[in-house]
Amino acid sequence: MNQNPSHNRVPMANTQISYLRIKMPETDPSAAPAATAAPAPATAAAPAPESTPAAPKLTGAQLKAQKKAEKAARREQSKAAEPTPAAPVANDKQSGGKQNKSKQDAPATSVASRPKKPVPTPAPAPPKQPAGPVIPECFSHLPMAKKLTLSKTDKDVHPAVLSIGQQMATFTLKDNVTRLEATLVAFKKVIKEYESPPGHVFSRHFLPHVLNPQIDYLAECRPMCFAMGNAIRMLKSKIAKLDLDQSDEASKEQLCDAIDLFIQERILYAEESIVSKAASMIANGETIFTYGHHRLVRKALQAARAQGRSFEVAILDDPYERSGQQLAKILRNDGIRVYYYPSLAGLSINLRRASKVLLGAEAMFANGSLYGPAGTCDIAISANDADVAVIALLETVNFDRDRVSADSLTYNEIDPERYSADSLRLLFDATKDKYITAVVTESEEGNATASTSAMLPVLRKMDERTL
């Protein structure tokens, strides 16, 4: 039998003990075979048999090492015998203390061995429905008035501008010149209350940081009419020409004077001049045909009646707005005989009694097309077929010398109260210049009955004189 202890297979827990025994001095030859005997149990070192002499006493360090090794052996055996429990998740808010205790006491299975619960697949979200009716694609380029909530407005918008913006969105301010005058009055308040920040020049800071937010807000409420665009262009031109060295007070006074002059010449004087010219064109015994209720047409008819002329008026009303009813009541109170037609039905027959057609318009394009309320084009074409003169009343501030229009879809607005995915109503239409006999403006350069082709040079001269 091999006496070398290094060839004996001794358990790991007793390896250190055997090594200690080898280093000790041998007192009895019979002790060597005892050392190479079968290994002792792993739990503790068994005492030597009675036939063999007692093992020598171990030192304190040796006993400490022996106990440490035995303890490690027991720990390894317990780990191998019992499965590793999963750490319980404590949640005091969801379960009570007794439930947590029972979960910790129960043997937990391995995470990998647990059956996986099927994860429910979320249902697909329904498609978002549009907030309002979808506008057909062929009309998607046309704007529409909308009422903005105060939370969506810019903090730099003046209260006066906020007020008129809401009135424009709800069509409380509907007439183009009325909207223009209200806008200019509100801009005057903005100018008077403005103060340049330290280190900034009035003309360089006012336009981008103060005036532009007001313009953007008004354009969001409702698309600006042509008169508003021309007035804003004039105001920006005046701001650009301000002297950089002059004081804020002088700049504000200069701009306010320019606005007052614009209102006086291009609105008040223009209205008075057009009304006088149109009234002089009405003779005794004539029947004047008109459409809806336009401010200039009404004042021209009243002026002609005030001058002692006797005539009749035939009113064709807009079937959607019924503004002609109001005009009929006003003229009846002034002693004028009125014929009222509620719709376009029978238009060609109703025009047979007419001597002239007086129409108010929204604007005129550079190619002479008349931009007016929806239905104006039908009346002009029917009057042309009946050989009846068509006269348009229009201020020059409503002329657009840059843009042209070939049909009613180039520039227009959608009625916000009458549109859906299947149908919609346009507020305006375009009438070609060949159906317009004459245009009456306040210009002194042209005649009272100038043709549409002669109005563009007149407009250029007026713009040069104004700017």
From TrEMBL:
Pfam families: IF-2B. Residues 67-79 have a biased composition (Basic and acidic residues). Residues 1-132 are annotated as: Disordered. Keywords: Cytoplasm, Initiation factor, Protein biosynthesis. GO terms for molecular function: translation initiation factor activity. SUPFAM superfamilies: NagB/RpiA/CoA transferase-like. This is Translation initiation factor eIF2B subunit delta. It comes from Phomopsis amygdali.
